[in-house]
Amino acid sequence: MDLGLLWFWIVAGLFVGYFVLDGFDFGVGMSLPFLGKDDVDRRVLINTIGPVWDLNETWVIVAGASLFAAFPEWYATMFSGFYLALLLILLALIARGVSFEYRHQRPEHAWKRRFDTMIVVGSAVPAFLWGVAFANVVRGVPLDAGHNLTGSLLDLLNPYALLGGLTTLVLFFTHGVVFVTLKTDGEMRARAHRLAIGAGVVTIVVAAAFLLWTTLAYGSIASALLSAAAAVALVGSFLANLRARSGVAFALMAVTIGVAVLSLFSSLVPDVMPASNDAANSLTIANASSSQYTLTVMSWTALVFLPLIVGYQAWTYWIFRKRITRASIPVEPVGAAPAGR
Predict the structure, then answer these.
(1) Residue numbers of the domain that contains 188
(2) Is residue 331 part of a domain?
(3) Residues 71 and 114: beta-carbon distance below 8 Å
(4) Is 322 left (phi over 0), alpha (psi -120 to 50) or beta?
(5) For residues 256 and 237, is the Cβ–Cβ distance under 8 A?
(6) How many domains does the chain divide into?
(7) Which residues of 121-133 are buried (b: 16+ CB within 10 A; e: fewer)?
(8) Among 27, 144, 132, which Cα is nearest to 86's?
(9) Mean per-residue pLDDT for 258-277?
(10) 177 and 199 Cβ atoms separated by less than 8 Å
(11) First to last CA, the chain
(12) pLDDT tens readout for residues 271-322
């Protein structure tokens, strides 16, 4: 068995898990200005993800650690070449996490509004920049013979990458709003349902443009088939939302994001980071992976621990599966933790 190829798809699967799970709580964070009419509404929204947002973020830690161990050359090139974008993502995630914990510490309206703004920004920035980063990986970046990125930040902000960032932004926003329809009731659910319909139209247009561009310019037969499957799932999610089938709509949005990520990874094979200036400088699965011994140890470790992680997270979602309403939000004393935490 080619362990390098196996770990390429394991890393892809970990990023699928991250984008599907953290994607919807990015969307919930971005929805605060649209769905949060008052402080109680905003607390309802925050409490829909209160028990799980930090657990969702562990997926990117596992994905990054797996990338570092399985493909050290890929990790070094991507994290050094995209360091500014990744630093902005890290700062945004820190600001977002701090805001969840601190917005309830004082009763003043201005205090809460500042942290609510940080939640919105801290959700939108990663949602956009992850798309920019992965679009650049698919498009290819200028690399020298030592696999170092030779371009500037402006090279990363090309039209294709910006469209990729806009795609993940609207996908995650719609994913989060659909999640709100699944987790709330009453007027909040009705508002989220209407917003999800409008956002769904925009998402279909933007995502279709990005997937078509990817398929025509950088795709393979496998990536084209996966892109088509993602498009079908996205339209299905929109139609399910029209019929107020929240569970089906959310599941199909998860399928859309997951299959779209797999289509991007499949368009790379056998590369992991194509060189746009000289194909000889490209990083491939073969020349970027660790030794067979390292990959073998990692494979046995993953076989033991990944099912435990998935099982624990599934149990957490089951425990906190009930809908949240305004009536379920208690009067919040100063210093109290958010409900569900």
Answers:
(1) 3-322
(2) no
(3) no
(4) beta
(5) yes
(6) 1
(7) bbbbbbbbbbbbb
(8) 132
(9) 93
(10) yes
(11) 44
(12) 999 998 888 999 999 999 999 999 999 999 999 988 998 998 899 889 888 8
